[in-house]
Design brief:
The structure holds 3 protein chains of 3 kinds.
Chain A (H helix, E strand, L loop, with lengths): L6 E3 L4 H11 L3 E4 L5 H6 L7 E4 L9 E4 L2 E5 L4 H6 L1 H6 L1 H7 L5 H6 L2 H6 L7 H7 L3 E6 L2 E6 H4 E3 L2 E2 L6 E8 L4 E7 L9 E10 L2 E10 L6 E2 L1 H7 L6 H14 L10 H22 L1
Parallel strand pairs in A: 1-3, 2-3
Antiparallel strand pairs in A: 4-5, 5-10, 6-7, 6-10, 8-9, 11-12, 12-13, 13-14
Helix pairs in contact in A: 10-11, 11-12
Chain B lengths: L4 E7 L2 E7 L5 H8 L18 E4 L2 E4 L12 E3 L12 H8 L9 H14 L5 H7 L11 H21 L1
Parallel strand pairs in B: 1-5
Antiparallel strand pairs in B: 1-2, 3-4, 3-5
Helix pairs in contact in B: 2-5
Chain C lengths: L7 H8 L11 H5 L15 E7 L5 E7 L1 H5 L3 E5 L1 H4 L6 E3 L5 E3 L5 E2 L5 E7 L2 H10 L1 E6 L6 H4 L16 E2 L2 E2 L5 E8 L1 H10 L2 E12 L8 E7 L4 E6 L4 H12 L6 E4 L15 H13 L3 E4 L2 H7 L2 E13 L5 E11 L29 E8 L6 E2 L8 H19 L3 H8 L8 E2 L5 E2 L4 H11 L2 H16 L5 E11 L11 E2 L2 E2 L2 E7 L5 E5 L8 H13 L6 E5 L16 H28 L6 E4 L2 E4 L2 E7 H10 L10 E6 L8 E11 L5 E11 L6 H20 L31 E4 L17 H19 L12 H10 L5
Classes of the chains: A alpha+beta, B alpha+beta, C alpha+beta.
């Protein structure tokens, strides 16, 4: 229940945060909402000598929708994303996913940056951001760079972010068309047994674009080009949906845990992906 | 005590200053340093919600906040939501509708319900259940808690209408 | 008499006595955050203690090096078994006639077992010091399966019992065997089964779960060396028993020990026994001369404290082809973990499991229970079970369903055909229990009518057809249960906890100005005793419940009692309360007679007063009488007005109920939705309907959790898989359905106010109702038995194995 002692830093600016990371290397960790990191520290599964609290850094907050592009500061909470009228118009899939994360108290503190940055395969935002083809801005001692969400995740807890970098914002083109975030879990507060994000567009009775990404079905989120391709050009009929589901399920590699064995998760994944695609089609 | 830092926080309208290790948990700062034993600890993995307080206008699990993070914060606990001479509508409603048994989840539950009704003054039953889904109860089966919250909402809204 | 004179109805209402939904007096402090739980207690100089715990399920402890821990500033002491051995406290007796380690003595036997106790100036230093204790373990082979544990060549767990071929409950036939307990007539039962037209045989497993109250276990122990007095505040469901045990273990006389149970945040049987944390805190306090607080974490609670159930119940039930049951045979393999720490009355190592003939008139029956040691936490009896009644009810309510399948009969009809008839009570079952009263057919008919049972079966048949036509992927299950429980332990002649007879007590003192205080030997953990026991008294003695303070839990002031668990408070302490109230009234009658200058026999009791027969304008209220008791010199009568009753119940009580659960199951995802849950409970006289309803809601929600996903499971090397609330299923308000409660009222003929108790009924009846709903949904496709919990994965597995996934 009690974390080991650490030094606490609360810089007012990004530069200060980067400075602490540079000085202490992997003994320093940033603190966003804390609802992934602090439980790990309390169980003494994460050892942090220097904790860098980002709560005062104004540059990390804010949701901007301009010119068809959405930019969300890393320290934006799930609650703020759900409450944002701009975001509800520009990318309603975000709120649909966010309300299925954790519980009300956790959503008040949990941030989108924290959810995408640490590479936890159970988090929902990574898969969703891959579906939206988002890019993450990483700022380090040598400046800033952009990495596509679809390239960011290497394996469990291993991402493209270097130790000295901070993920500062997420941006993506505001999607159009139909969307759905479907998630099966054991109870409120649980990670997904299987979850799927779908964005697709239709014109003239045909699917013109489709993005399908899955959560907690491998050691990283899984974006399935093949599933999207199986839908594009079709009318979105049962056969097309089935082909897309088959392609998506082929791309996952779930592991057994208390939710059930891999075989069970594979089956559930198929159901969830199918429901997400079907619902997105109905809204397109 | 290890290396400490200066922490200032406002709790239930009163300013407090103390020296604490950064790693001290807000739940224990409140309970053991400020003697506010209303919020309770029921788990160490941030699931049960018995520790729920309001921090800067948000419902927060105080077991998952370091004292250092709470430096400068404005906090309300159950003790700040009503007094013996002036019980809140929620406190009265929980009693009226038997929304508690052992009382251990109750401070966190009422504190959360208070913020829920600020977010959504006229919730449906489904919205109430979803709104308190971060607070576990082992005794009541939630049914009378939900009843109490809906009744409180009706009372508050009725009073507002009467005032208008 | 005039318009201002209160009517009898008004006078009764003013009392808020029996039968009223009186609002709770406890709520004032709980809703304001002013409860007083153990962790709220602060004493000057108080230290914090906590454990180094074993990561292994079975290992030798080669060495413990606490040097670095002791060197940490703020660490006062580190205790190991070696420190406790000179006091003979490294082991302690259990409630079940076994012994268990307080701290690891040469080996550890379950993951999470206590190895060393660190005492420090605050909880932060204590946590740091625990990390610095170095323990050298040598892993040993693990056994978590009770059947494998009884095989020849199975690992030896209890080296301390080497060579002991018998234990507290008779012969032991294997080094991991604890006892074989039997009752009934096996020969006659086997004969009936062999001769029967229809026999159904099935293994019914009630899996391991945990009561998980929201407040974990803990204590503050404070040895006052100046006055030689030990005070222990703690999460104790039986404070007087803890005092007696503490005295026996420490050598301190009972009059110098004060045990206090303050507010308790839920008990559910988790807080009955004595844990190593209590013993170590007491020792640490004696050694340091300072108060020592121990509050366990949730993981500690789930991994090391009293679990519940883990009963493998092999049943054989025989019947005529028309469905009349002729015999019941049950053999249980009982997994007790590493030590038999079951909180059972001494003479009943399998508790009251032999209530497993349930609501049915079964002519012959047999029960045999083999207790087994495994590398898991000790315990078994807890979680609203009333000493294995939950297991018994699940067993018989599943066997009835399996028999219905075997007979091709409707399960509701099969039950009704075999209920004990109302005119047979008091009824002695084939396994020796005398059921006090019951009216099962009335309850059953009421329940089935309330849910339109016939309509539900029609809907289900249509749904099966639609499913087969491919029109839906959802099945409908109707889960039935008619349970009979046995609660209110119990008659001193055969019920005792560590030798203390299971009576209970109430001591009342009336004050001069007409209010009162009553103290009881029980202790509420949320059941509302301060509210309900005042109601019993209000009706008995005619003072308003609002004028009666009820106190429990302080062994210095409360009369000796055996505590609160097993739904015993109302049957036993409630009876003591009524009897003490009647003693008050008897003395009050004499005082009133003297005041009114009549003979005792000329008075009759009327709600709140004694009235002269035939002269209603001449009366004395209890309030008048109270004053007189302190004011008047009455010849032959001592001043004051108080009474005490220690009640030895003549029998247990037998509440019963009829539950129906209507459940939708998604065959592809394994998810479920409870569409309707109807619960009819008969607990005899109903003291406070509001509180009864609350108990039912809460117990049903625990039952939902148990049936639909909660478990304490282990992997092959004894790692606990469900040690946090991430994986130990506690439903939120979203997963919990709406319940409809109802009742019938069949008073207990032997209880002074006819009340039976109700706290555990919903868990006893709820689990079979939810589980039977799942089974019933798949009955048409060939399912007979699938073990709980029925989480998504396991429901999916049922569908998959029945070929429903195409």
């Amino acid at each position: 229940m009690i974390a080991a002692a650490f030094e606490y830093h609360r810089p007012a600016h990004l530069k200060g945060a980067l400075g602490v990371l540079a000085e202490y290397g992997d003994d320093a960790r940033v603190l966003a909402g804390g609802h992934s990191l602090i439980p790990m520290m309390k169980l003494r599964m994460a050892a942090v000598g220097h904790l860098v609290d980002l709560q005062d850094i104004a540059d990390l907050k804010g949701i901007r929708v301009a010119g068809g592009r959405v930019t969300i500061g890393a320290m934006t909470t799930q609650h703020e994303m759900i409450a944002s009228a701009d975001l509800a118009r520009a990318a309603p899939i975000i709120a649909e996913a966010a309300v299925q994360i954790a519980d009300p108290q956790v959503r008040y503190m949990g941030t989108v940056g924290g959810n995408v940055a640490n590479g936890d395969p159970g988090n929902d935002m990574p898969g969703l951001m891959q579906c939206l083809n988002a890019t993450f801005t990483l700022v380090g001692p040598d400046g800033s760079r952009e990495v596509a969400a679809r390239d960011f995740y290497h394996s469990a807890y291993v991402t493209a972010r270097e130790d000295g970098e901070i993920l500062t914002q997420i941006s993506f083109a505001a999607p159009t068309g139909g969307y759905a975030y479907e998630k099966q879990k054991r109870k409120i507060g649980d990670y997904a047994t299987a979850a799927c994000a779908v964005q697709l567009t239709k014109a003239g009775g045909k699917v013109t674009s489709a993005a399908v990404a899955m959560t907690n079905l491998a050691d990283t989120p899984v974006f399935s080009d093949a599933a999207g391709a199986a839908l594009v050009g079709t009318s979105g009929d049962a056969a097309a949906v089935k082909a897309a589901v088959t392609a998506a399920v082929a791309a996952i590699s779930p592991t057994g845990d208390n939710r059930g064995p891999a075989e069970f998760k594979r089956h559930i994944a198929g159901i969830i992906i199918g429901r997400a695609i079907t619902r997105a089609l109905s809204r397109a | 005590m290890g290396k400490t830092m200066h922490i200032a926080l406002t709790v239930n309208g009163e300013a407090h200053e103390l020296l604490a290790e950064p790693r001290e948990l807000l739940i224990y700062v409140l309970r053991e340093r400020l003697n506010l034993t209303g919020p309770h600890a029921g788990c160490e993995t941030s699931h049960c919600g018995a520790c729920t307080v309001e921090m800067n206008g948000k419902s927060v699990k105080s077991c998952t906040v370091f004292a250092a993070q709470a430096n400068g914060a404005t906090i309300t606990t159950i003790e700040g939501l009503g007094s013996p001479d002036s019980l809140s509508v929620l406190q009265q409603s929980f009693r009226e509708h038997h929304g508690l048994q052992c009382g251990y989840c109750t401070p966190g539950m009422i504190t959360r319900a208070h913020r829920l009704l600020q977010e959504n003054p006229d919730p449906t039953e489904e919205e109430v259940r979803f709104g308190i889904s971060g607070n576990l109860c082992r005794c009541t089966g939630y049914q009378n808690i939900v009843k109490a919250i809906l009744a409180a909402a009706a009372t508050i809204n009725g009073a507002k209408e009467a005032a208008e | 008499m005039n318009d201002l004179t209160p009517t009898p109805q008004e006078r009764t209402a003013k009392l808020k006595g029996l039968g009223t939904s009186r609002k709770r007096v406890e709520d004032a402090r709980f809703t304001q955050g002013k409860g007083n739980y153990v962790d709220d207690i602060k004493m000057p100089g108080m230290l914090h203690g906590d454990f180094v715990r074993s990561p292994y399920a079975h290992a030798r402890v080669k060495s413990i090096n606490a040097d670095a821990a002791r060197a940490l500033p703020g660490v006062i002491a580190v205790l190991t078994a070696a420190d406790l051995a000179p006091l003979n406290l490294h082991w302690m007796p259990t409630l079940a006639g076994d012994r268990q380690m307080v701290l690891a003595d040469g080996k550890v036997l379950f993951q999470g077992q206590e190895v060393a106790f660190v005492v420090a100036t605050d909880r932060y230093v204590c946590a740091d010091a625990i990390e610095l204790v170095e323990v050298d373990y040598e892993e040993l082979p693990v056994v978590t399966d009770p059947f494998k544990a009884l095989e020849p060549g199975a690992p030896v767990l209890r080296e301390d019992l080497a060579g002991q071929t018998s234990g507290a409950h008779g012969a032991r036939r294997h080094h991991n065997h604890i006892f074989l307990w039997e009752t009934g007539d096996e020969a006659a039962t086997n004969q009936a089964i062999e001769a029967a037209e229809v026999v159904a045989e099935e293994m019914i497993y009630y899996h391991r779960v945990h009561p998980c109250p929201l407040e974990t276990c803990g204590c503050v122990a404070s040895m006052d060396k100046v006055n030689g007095k030990l005070t222990v505040f703690g999460t104790f469901q039986a404070p007087h028993v803890v005092r007696t045990v503490a005295s026996l273990l420490s050598g301190i006389e009972e009059h110098n020990i004060r045990v206090v149970s303050p507010d308790i945040g839920g008990g559910f049987g988790n807080k009955v026994g004595v844990y190593p944390g209590y013993v170590c805190s007491i020792v640490a306090s004696i050694v340091t001369g300072k108060p020592v607080k121990w509050i366990e974490d949730r993981m500690d609670n789930l991994m090391a404290t009293a679990f519940a159930r883990d009963y493998w119940m092999k049943g054989r039930i025989s019947a005529t082809k028309d469905g009349k049951i002729t015999g019941l045979h049950c053999h249980v393999t009982a997994d007790h973990g590493a030590f038999d720490a079951c909180a059972d009355p001494t003479k009943f190592p399998a508790g009251f499991f032999h209530i497993c003939t349930g609501s049915y008139d079964i002519p012959v029956a047999y029960v045999g229970v083999d207790g087994v040691y495994t590398n898991k936490a000790p315990g078994g009896v807890a979680y609203r079970c009333s000493f294995r009644v939950t297991e018994a009810a699940y067993f018989i309510e599943r066997m009835i369903e399996v028999l219905a399948i075997e007979l091709g009969m409707d399960a509701a009809e099969l039950r009704a055909k075999n209920f004990i008839r109302k005119d047979r009570f008091p009824y002695t079952s084939a396994l020796g229990w005398e059921y006090d009263s019951g009216d099962y057919h009335t309850a059953w008919d009421k329940a089935l009518a309330a849910v339109d049972y016939a309509g539900l079966r029609r809907e289900q048949a249509e749904r099966v057809a639609a499913f087969k036509r491919g029109e839906t992927r959802k099945l409908l299950g109707i889960g039935l249960t008619h349970f009979t429980e046995i609660v209110g332990a119990g008659p001193v002649k055969n019920c005792d906890i560590l030798g203390m007879g299971m009576f209970d007590s109430c001591e009342i003192r009336i004050h001069p100005t007409g209010s009162a205080i009553a103290r009881l030997g029980t202790i509420s953990q949320g059941q509302g005793h301060a509210t309900t026991f005042a109601q019993i008294l209000a009706t008995e003695i005619g003072l308003p419940a609002d004028s009666i303070t009820i106190e429990e839990g302080d062994t210095d002031t409360a009369p000796y009692g055996l505590g609160t668990y097993g739904s015993r408070s109302t049957p036993v302490a409630g009876a003591a309360t009524a009897m003490a109230g009647r003693k008050i009234r008897a003395k009050a009658q004499m005082i009133a007679a003297w005041l009114l200058e009549v003979h005792d026999g000329d008075l009759e009791w009327d709600i709140d007063r004694f009235v002269v027969k035939g002269a209603p304008e001449r009366f004395k209220t209890m309030k008048d009488i109270a004053y007189a008791a302190y004011h008047n010199a009455i010849p032959g009568i001592e001043p004051g007005l108080e009474a005490v009753s220690y009640y030895d119940p003549p029998n247990m009580t037998y509440p019963f109920g009829a539950y129906v659960c209507v459940m939708e199951i998604d065959v592809d995802t394994g998810t479920h939705e409870v569409r309707q849950f109807y619960a009819l409970d008969d607990c005899g006289t109903r003291i406070n309907p509001m509180i009864i309803e609350g108990q039912v809601h809460g117990g049903l929600t625990e039952a939902l959790a148990i049936a639909m996903g909660q478990e304490i499971a282990y992997d092959e090397i004894g790692n606990c898989k469900n040690s946090t609330l991430m994986d130990f299923f506690l439903p939120t308000a979203v997963e919990t359905p709406h319940y409809t409660t109802d009742y019938t009222e069949t008073p207990s003929p032997h209880h002074p106010i006819g009340a039976k108790g109700v706290g555990e009924s919903p868990n006893v009846g709820g689990v079979p109702a939810f589980s039977n709903a799942v089974h019933d949904a798949f009955r048409a496709f060939g399912l007979r038995q699938a073990h709980m919990p029925h989480d998504h994965w396991r429901i999916w597995k049922i569908a998959n194995q029945l070929g429903l996934h195409g």
